[in-house]
Amino acid sequence: MKTSSVLAIAMLIWGTIAGFHDIEADSILVFARQATSLPPCRLNYTTDVWTGCADVIAQFEITLEEFLYANPQLGEGCDGFKPGETYCVFRDSNTRPTSLDGNCGIQANYSASCVGSTFGDCCNPSGKCGKGEDFCGKGNCQEGSCEGGRYSTDGKCGREHDYLPCPPKFGLCCGGNGQCGNATAFCATGCQSGPCLEASTTSASQSPTPTPTTSPGGVSPDGTCGYNDAFVCKGSKFGSCCSAAGYCGDTEYECSQYLGW
Questions:
Q1: pLDDT band at residue 119, thresholds of 50, 70 and 90?
Q2: Positive or negative CA dihedral for 17, 18, 21, 23?
Q3: pTM of whole model > 0.90?
Q4: Per 3-state DSSP, what percentage of the chain is helix, strand, and coil (rounded to 5)?
């Protein structure tokens, strides 16, 4: 059935329903988009229970419009997003073309994707498409069907590096300097992510840095914002915008309409 026919049927149904109920105009647009046949999904992603719509958009570097197009069941504004569910990240008509020469990633200016290519669905740190652990494993995959999502491929991590987590090959802790490692210097004071150590487990010879006491809702003392303490970024030394991940900054990531506030 042609798209125009589907839309015509949707409008007819809308006209009938409107005679009985006062439904917002946006509803018919959502219905029509769901009724229209969509291209096949090229990459599905299963979210964690703590993952939000903005997190998926940031991780896969797509726009809200692209994500909603790929998942029309979410409605307008991602209102129907449910953490823990599986969603389509890329469909044929809203993605980069498939790599025809096996080149990918930053080395190819992200002009083509490995997903669906004859070389394999994963892009390794050298910018080549392939399959298996050397291409898809944690720390070996720039983009594509990466195992567990995107991880650091060069040992750099945290807020200065797109909030990438650390894979085992570099060490699981992301230190305050944005480098991955397993030593106390990475996992203790300043640790951004990973199996960070509590202050009580650090060496007794080290003098812990006093943590500023700031009341909930005050200016962020440590670069975190929102969530439990509801710290705000404006007026802090870390930046004026709060990202969806709960960190202050002044980049597009923190200040985007959909990824920050």
A1: very high
A2: positive
A3: no
A4: 25, 15, 55
Q: Which residue carries 């494993």 as its tokens?
A: 137
| Longest CA span, the chain | 76
Cβ neighbours of 259 (radius 10 Å): 20
CB 133 within 8 A of CB 124: no
**Cα gap 177→72, rounded to integer Å:** 40
DSSP 85: -
Q: What is the pLDDT of residue 256?
A: 67
User: Residue 235's pLDDT is what?
Assistant: 83
Angle at 164 between CA 163 and CA 167, to 5 degrees: 150
**Interhelix angle for 25-35 vs 3-18, to 10°?**
150
Query: Token pair 């004859």 is at which residue?
Result: 118
Instruction: Name every residue whose Cβ is closer than 8 Å to that of residue 231 and which is 6 or more positions away in sequence.
Output: 214, 216, 217, 218, 219, 220, 221, 224, 225
Nearest to 151 by CA among 165, 162, 169, 163: 165
In which band, very low, low, confident or very high, does the pLDDT at 217 lie, cut at 50, 70 and 90?
low
Please return the burial class of 185, using the count of CB atoms within 10 Å of its CB with bins 0-12, 13-18 and 19+: middle
Contact 91, 68 (CB under 8 A): no
Q: What are the b/e assignments for 73-97, b being 16+ CB within 10 Å?
A: ebbeebeebeeeeebbbbbeebbee
Contact indicator for 36, 1 with CB cutoff of 8 Å: no
* Closest-CA residue to 45 (of 33, 37, 57): 57
